[in-house]
Amino acid sequence: MSRRSGILEFAVLGLLRESPMHGYELRKRLNTSLGVFRAFSYGTLYPCLKTLVANGWLIEEPGSTTEDALAAPLTGRRAKIVYRLTAEGKEHFEELLSQTGPDAYEDEHFAARFAFFGRTPQDVRMRVLEGRRSRLEERLEKMRASLARTRERLDDYTLELQRHGMESVEREVRWLNELIESERAGRDLKGSASGEPDLPDTTHGTPGGLPRSGDTSRPDTPDDTAT
Asked: Which portions of the sequence form the region Disordered (predicted)?
């Protein structure tokens, strides 16, 4: 399994741990609540869902809403498939939550892990946060050393880009320090009015808020009859 596939499976299990969803709803939540999945297609999501079903972690059920029941005969399409987490799937997700290996510190995986910190034990949260901080401090040290070696050969714009990258990493390290201090003090992280914490935008290495599930941007055309 590729690292990208593993992150997607983890995120899908986590979202379905909250409630059953059909494919389009899942994709929208992945796009809006977890910024790391802003750009991916149904061609990526549905093979992942099929794998999780084959492993016994999900089951497929026909859509049961009135809207689904009416839409099928009118459009000639099958009702939407709803995906539900099984008991084995819940157990597997809890096992994944407890893992604190190096992958948990990487950019994309950390953002997904952080999104489910509300369900993660405090000691695991601490290990992930401290591991992420150590990883970024190592990255920052390498960036500084590289800049010191190449400064004289860089033009002003490239030099400014290098500085911007360093400042981005420094900001996330400061953010992590604040989170770790809060965890050690036993304080809960308070997010926005929706009750969700801001997620780190690891696309550019800087912490910041990502769109919520209530994002009002125009949704993609759904296709939830894929099997």
From this structure: 184-227
Residue 170 Cα distances to 112, 135, 140, 204, 205, angstroms: 21, 12, 7, 12, 9
Per the structure block, which two tokens stand in for 72? 């099928």
Task: Summarize the confidence of residues 21-38 as an average pLDDT.
Answer: 81
- Cα gap 69→14, rounded to integer Å: 28
| pTM recorded for the entire structure | 0.72
* Helix, strand or coil, per DSSP, at residue 59: strand
Helix 42-54 and helix 3-18: axis angle, to 10°? 70
Q: Starting at the earlier edge strand, list the strands of the sheet with 58-62.
A: 21-22, 81-85, 58-62
Q: Are residues 66 and 90 in contact, defined by beta-carbon separation less than 8 angstroms?
A: no
Comparing CA positions, the residue from 49, 52, 72, 47 lying closest to residue 62 is 72
Query: Which residue bears the tokens 């790391």?
Result: 36
pLDDT band for 120, please (50, 70, 90 cuts): very high
**Residue 119's closest CA among 91, 97, 102?**
97
Is the per-residue pLDDT at 219 higher than 50? Answer: no
DSSP string, 113-144: HHHTGGGS-HHHHHHHHHHHHHHHHHHHHHHH
Chain-centroid distance of CA 8 in Å reads 8
